[in-house]
Amino acid sequence: MNTQDAGQTPAPKPSLLSALTVYGERRALIMLALGFASGLPNLLIFDTLSAWLRESGLSLQVISIFSLATLAYSMKLLWAPLVDRTKIPWLTNRLGHRRSWMLVAQVAVMIGLWLVAGGDPVRNLGMMALLAVLVAFAGATQDIVIDAWRIEAAGETRQGALAAAYQWGYRIAIIVAGAVPLILAQQYSWNVSYLVMAALMLIGVAGVLGAPREAQHIVRAINLEGVPSRPGLELPEWLARLTLVLAGAVVLGSGLAGSADILAQGLAAIGQAGAGEGLVAAWTSRPWGVFLQVGAVLVGGGLIVLAAFPIPGFRTRPGVYLSAALFDPFIDFFDRYRGTAALILALICLYRLADFVLNIMTPFYLDLGFTLVEIAEVRKVFGVAMSMLGVFLGGLAVARFGLLRALLIGAFAGPLSNLVFAWLAIEGAWLPALFVAIGVDNVAGGFAGTCLIAYMSSLTGQGFTATQYAVFSSFYSLPGKLLASQSGRIVESTAAAAEAGGALGAFKGLFAGLPAEAYASAVEKSGVSAAALGTGYLLFFIYSALIGVVGIVLAFMVAARQKPPEAQLFEAAPEGASVSPPA
Q1: Which of 84, 150, 283, 527 has the least C-beta neighbours within 10 A?
Q2: For residue 217, what are the β-bridge partners?
């Protein structure tokens, strides 16, 4: 168990002013530029590109195939070990390990977008699809290495501010990539708009060149002593193992992304198009499709583990290398957090459970009687501003109070903010109440999300930063997806029970003063009275707050057993490790 050293004098709590100055430091400004570069390609490879494809006269079926490119972001954890271990010739010695990888990834994104800008979807559709995959792969690689640089380039007290700056930059890029290309395409052409987007990646390049080098980078050695080289046997073994990795990656990525399109395309290629269509329908069905998605994650992960597993009684270089690349990051984590690792993983997966179950909010606002314009204005404009405020406050809290204390505050934020929606369910379609509810929820979500990102960052170990953080960030939402699949069912079943009377029926009295238009449009669809439907929503939001208590309890348990992170995140380098010298 990790405990604080006896007699250690706790560091003085930073003043509010000194905590605020973290946002003006060079690293935070660099992180803003890197966050922008990270967010820009994400939307351009499908959402924005689909508008170009549709205007070119392509069918929705063809356009949907381009969504497969986004799977790269779900599967990035698979090549994160490569990013941790592999040096870029010439560049690594001059820029450092992380900055060299960032620069290569950004140049690849720029070249990909530039080539897309010179394309024609009607004449060169296949080439544009290939370029979209290239940009997605490079963009996902950029995400991996930016996260790793952020963690390695700053101490614990700055992780919150850097996470906040990254999210600001990312969200600004999403707005830019979603709006500016459409405006430019209207005024000039799609080719011009994508050329401008490629040029905007120079913001990220400037961030890389202006970024300080990480203090050191550890390359964990893989022990091949006593394993003879057998080139004739190793080539087919590599092909077999990598084929299994690829198959597992496709299944795993399909589960994480919630899309079975690539699996359906594979079935169609072997003459089973009908089975592929059925799989897609089952994959996206509510509420049980999410269980199929989680099952795919488990099956895909199992295939990857099998591919990396050494052959019993017969050590081979491919087996040793793949097993070390895949398993060593997990072994390192469980060694460093012996006695608390399971609690920490549970906390990561359940910390934001109260937020993830709120996947029925737009239907809720419509049922209350708000118009689409009102919902759009409050959620997409005011809500985004409040979210960015929450992100700022989260980073400030980490710098001011320390990581574990900020994490505890964030654990309360989600459940308490959900109770504001319970109040909104009783108030009806009152616009000021909608502003309050969405404002509180977005501030709380931004705060808790920043604290969780900073906490996950503090858990990574030397030599495995990219891999371990990619694993944490890929899997932390899975339990929430499972529970969220039942949200609509909970509301409707609770409303039906309230309509039938009994103990739940007593809550209907809370809705006696509702205006006539509240829930009016939903009464016919739900088959219950407005008061009963309001009761269903009210109790659902109370339920969503109560399940958040699990995260609060886990946060207290982890805080009690885990040593507070020091300003230096990493322990001493292991004997024999290769260390890149600081700049």
Answers
A1: 527
A2: 580
Work out the number of other CB atoms within 10 angstroms of the CB of residue 384. 15
277/267 Cα distance (integer angstroms): 9
Token pair 């739940």 is found at 504
Specify the DSSP class assigned to residue 508: G
Give me the residues paired with residue 218 across strands.
579
What would the two tokens of residue 441 be?
């929820």
Neighbours of 315 (CB within 10 A): 14
Report which DSSP code applies to 285: -
Alpha helices (runs of H) in 377-529, residue ranges in sequence order: 383-401, 403-427, 431-458, 465-475, 478-484, 487-499, 502-505, 520-526
What is the C-alpha to C-alpha distance for residues 432 and 339, in angstroms, rounded to an integer?
Answer: 48
Full-model pTM: 0.79
pLDDT for residue 24: 67
580 backbone dihedrals φ, ψ, rounded to 5°: -75, 130
| Tokens 């919630």 found at | 258
Q: In the structure encoding, which two tokens stand for residue 525, read together?
A: 């669809």
* CA atoms in the 13 A half-sphere facing the CB of 536: 29
pLDDT at 174: 86
Residue 218 sits at φ, ψ, to 5 deg, of -95, 130
Of all helices (H) and strands (E), which one includes residue 579?
Answer: strand 578-580
DSSP secondary structure, 514-577, as one string:
--TTTTHHHHHHHTS-HHHHHHHHHHHHHHHHHHHHHHHHHHHHHHHHSPPPPSS-S-PPPTT-
Instruction: Determine the length of the chain.
Output: 583
Which residue is listed with tokens 């935070």? 28
Which residues of the chain are modeled with pLDDT < 70?
Answer: 1-24, 59-65, 67-68, 155-157, 215-221, 224, 286-287, 563-583
Structure tokens at 153: 């380039």
Maximal C-alpha separation, the chain: 81
Strand pairing class (217-219; 578-580): antiparallel
Per-residue model confidence (pLDDT) at position 411? 92
- What is the DSSP secondary-structure string of 57-73? T--HHHHHHGGGGGHHH
DSSP state of 429: S
- Residues 528, 491 contacting (CB under 8 angstroms): no
Alpha-carbon torsion angle 447, 449, 452, 456, nearest 10: -140
**Cis peptide upstream of residue 329 (ω within 30 degrees of 0):** no
Q: What is the pLDDT of residue 269?
A: 78
Axis-axis angle for helices 26-44, 97-117 (nearest 10):
40
